[in-house]
Each structure stands twice: as C-alpha cells, then as structure tokens.
Specification:
By secondary structure, this protein is α+β, with helices and mostly antiparallel strands. It has 10 helices and 6 strands, in the order ααααββαααββαααββ.
Length: about 240
C-alpha cells in the first residue's frame, strides 16, 4: 500500500471513530452526562428517579450506553445477604465523547471522508472502508463483553443491534421469514453516504467485526456468504442486513 493509500486509511479511520461516537437519543445523552458526573456511578433506580422514568426505561438507556462502551458495569449483591438479584452500578468509561455535534464538526467529518475516498479507486476504497469498519467493530464488541464466551448467532445479532443503537443507528434485530434481519432506522453516515455510497462498506464491516468477536469467525463466515443487504443511501427502501437464521 502506497503513502497516499496509508493516508486515506488514517483519515478514514479517524472519521469513522468520530462519527460513530455520536449519540442519537437526547434522553440517553442526559443519562450519560448524569452518570459521568457521579463519582461512584449510578443505578437504574437513581436514573429513573432523577429523570422521572420507569425503571425499565432507565435500565434500557444504561444498558445501551454500556453496550456502546461508554459506561462500565459493576455488580454487587445487597449487604443484607446474597439472595436476590445483584444490583448494577454504571460508571463512565474512558474520555467523554463529543456529544454536541455542530454543523461545522459534521462538515469537517464529511470533508475528511470525501478527502480519503478521493485518493483511492472505488474498489480499493470499498475494501479499505470495510476493513476499517471490521476492526472498529471487533474492538467495540470486545469492550461490550470482554469476559464472556461466544454467543449464539441470534443473541450476538441482538447485541450488535443494541451497540449500533447506542451509536446513533436506531437498530433492531428481527425475524423475516427464514432469515434474521438487522434493521437500521437511522445512520450517522447517511448524508456522507448519499454522496459516497462506498461508505456503506464501513457499516458492513462494523457488523461483521462485531459478529466475529461475539459469535466466532467461522459462524460469521458461513452466515455472511448468504447475506443480503440494502442501503437507503444507495436507493433502497431500508438499511438492512438479512442473514440465514
């Protein structure tokens, strides 16, 4: 790979990491900031009380943030005994992400992506985008469940949907006939992908990278060979990935 291609990889990697750090849900951003300001972390009950949410809704937001690697989870049993469900405390993990994306920042990210892609022929750019997305997805999945064993493909796909949602994709996993589908209602790449659809390869790479880390490379290889995918940026009705159940 030549120096120009290496430069493109570096720029593209930086842009992907920045774009996917965005939070799509305003309540979740507030929950994250609340947790970050608490030195000892927060519980779902504390979040529910502070924001007047149902405890299940508060837990949902906290688990989404944990799935995205923004919060760490500590479990501890009640001091009254070991019986019962262990309580979870959620603490901020790593440096704070940029939560207040401005038009200027978004324009800079698009410019970085466009500049990187313009340096390369489309086949090379697409291969690079998928490779960068794959590595990012693997790292993200490792932060989600570093101590757990491999998950079933169905469970892993649901975990991928949760992680993508925490990163602004509004994703869900559902059954579609004989297949399992990963549906994305929104995408932080969308505006840039409309101009450069090759960016969708980064999305595919992220999904493959997360599934590879959570469910195993052999499972991903077998499932992905029969996968079908669609992209709104490329004119399809939805952004979706369908894989054999």
């Amino acid at each position: 790979m030549g120096p120009m291609a290496e430069l493109a990889v570096t720029r593209f990697s930086a842009a992907v990491a920045a774009v996917t750090s965005a939070f799509g849900d305003p309540t979740r951003r507030k929950v994250y900031l609340f947790a970050r300001e608490a030195p000892d972390g927060v519980t779902a009950s504390e979040v529910a009380s502070h924001f007047c949410l149902h405890p299940n809704v508060a837990r949902h937001h906290l688990d989404k943030l944990a799935a995205g690697g923004y919060l760490e989870v500590e479990t501890a049993r009640s001091s009254l005994g070991s019986a019962g469900r262990p309580s979870k405390r959620y603490k901020a993990a790593g440096p704070p992400p940029a939560l207040d994306g401005t038009a200027r920042e978004e324009s800079l990210l698009v410019a970085l992506l466009e500049g990187a892609l313009a340096l390369l022929p489309r086949p090379v750019a697409e291969e690079m985008a998928e490779r960068v997305g794959f590595e990012y997805g693997r790292k993200l999945a490792q932060s989600m469940s570093p101590a757990e064993g491999q998950l079933s493909f169905r469970t892993a796909l649901r975990a991928v949907a949760d992680a993508l949602t925490a990163h602004g994709f509004a994703a869900r996993a559902e059954r579609r006939g004989p297949s399992l589908a990963l549906i994305k209602e929104s995408c932080p790449f969308f505006d840039a992908a409309q101009q450069h659809p090759v960016i969708c390869a980064a999305d595919r790479g992220m999904v493959k990278g997360m599934l590879s880390a959570l469910s195993g490379p052999l499972s991903v290889s077998a499932e992905w060979s029969a996968a079908e995918w669609s992209s709104r940026a490329m004119g399809d009705a939805t952004c979706a990935t369908s894989l054999p159940a």
